Amino acid sequence: MENKNLTKRERKELRRQEKQAQKTQTFKSKTFKSILTWGLVVLGIALAIWGMLKLASTPVDDTPLTGEVTEDDWIKGNPNADVILVEYSDFQCPACGVYYPIVKQMVAEYEDEIAFVYRHFPLSQHQNARPAAYAAEAAGQQGKFWEMHNMIFDNQNSWSEDNNAASIFRGYAQNLSLDLTKYDAAVSSTEVKNKVDNHYTSGVQSNVTYTPTFYLNGQKIANPSNLGEFRTLIQAALDGN
Amino acid sequence: MSFKSLLPFLLISLALLGFLDAVYLTAQHYLGFTLACPITGCSAVLKSSYAIFLGFPIALFGALYYLVILLGVVAYLDRKKEVFLLGAALLTIPGFLTTLGLIYLQLFVINSICLYCMISALTTTSLFGLSLPLLLRKIR
Q: Which of B2, B11, B13, B47 is deepest in the core (most CB within 10 A)?
């Protein structure tokens, strides 16, 4: 063999080189495995985040509004308009309080072109939401639903946490110069309670899970973040007709 | 396969599940509309003041927590150094304690249960349970 011709020292050197090469080889395959592992992990994590972002940003469910707008509904604007905006609202819900002036302003702007419908959706965690709805309905029986509705929202902070909110609402009834005997009877009547219940049930059937929930021409819309966005939506609906 | 060789993969699976869950909740927090009052349930929990910590949604901390555990176990598999596995196992202790606190809040303070939070509770508890034998062995 060739090796025989090599000196002892040369043979030692050769072995050393072979060992070194083997070492680099295992090191290389190990690094390769590491890179592969971590690459897959990073890829997996990125994929997971992307997927969840996609999942979370799916638009609002498109359960259509069940329950036609009837004469029993409280309508503001033009009752015969083609564009109908329905709101399921809770008088004690702070978000509804935030939307109240926005909706009010918008309805004033499109008074002749849209019909705005207010429906009760009192949430169970708001102890005064039902009394407020009853007060508005009782005022409605004397033709002052919207006046009471405005007063209740204008003063949301002053009655929300009050243990005797009903008497505060009675004070509003007095301010609106309602017939208090009739008002008192109406507030505790089953007729008023049933009406609020019916509103609530129709909301549940339409898959309302938060307040305010808005339906524009029967389609649930994501809550606009300001008046401008609301205008754009309404304008698009008007243009579409 | 023995429990010991199976353990890292169980931990990775659970941490991944928890990570997906927490990232989903975090994404919902930032992408979902914020101006609404929810009917009681998941959103009642997630919109409560307890869902925010130091200005960030708790789900975000949860996502980071699961990520660290996940990376720790992967590091162990890659480097074969037990310290990584042990570190991940140790982390499951504060994770489990936090879960207990959050379940308490849901049951007795917010009075509402959120399914996604319960999934996370299940994963942290399982992670802790699986790590326990390893931790106990180290103490002895």
A: B11
CATH of domain B3-139: 1.20.1440.130
What are B48-103's pLDDT values in tens digits? Answer: 777 778 888 888 999 999 999 999 999 998 888 888 988 998 999 999 999 998 88
Per-position DSSP letters for A39-99, written without gaps between them:
HHHHHHHHHHHHHHHHHHTPPPP-PPPPS---TTSEEEE-TT-SEEEEEEE-TT-HHHHHH
Q: Are strands A114-120 and A83-89 parallel, antiparallel or unpaired?
A: parallel
> Does A45 contact B31 at a Cβ distance shorter than 8 Å?
no
pTM of full prediction above 0.80: no
Q: What is the number of CB-based contacts under 8 A between chain A and chain B?
A: 75
Instruction: Say what the pLDDT of residue A161 is.
Output: 87
CA distance A129 to A159: 10
Task: Tell if the CB–CB gap between B32 and A225 is shorter than 8 Å.
Answer: no
Class of domain A74-240: alpha beta
Residue in the structure block whose two tokens are 């799916």:
A58
Strand, coil or helix: A213: strand
Residue A145 Rama label (left phi>0; alpha psi -120 to 50; beta) = alpha
Which strand ranges, in their side-by-side order, compose the sheet holding A219-221?
A74-77, A114-120, A83-89, A213-216, A219-221
User: Is A32 within 8 Å of chain B by CB?
Assistant: no
Measured at the alpha carbon of residue A47, what is the angle toward residues A46 and A48, in degrees to the nearest 5? 90
Q: Is the peptide bond before B57 cis (omega within 30 degrees of 0)?
A: no
3-state secondary structure of A234: helix
Q: How many CA atoms lie within 13 A of B50 on its CB side?
A: 20
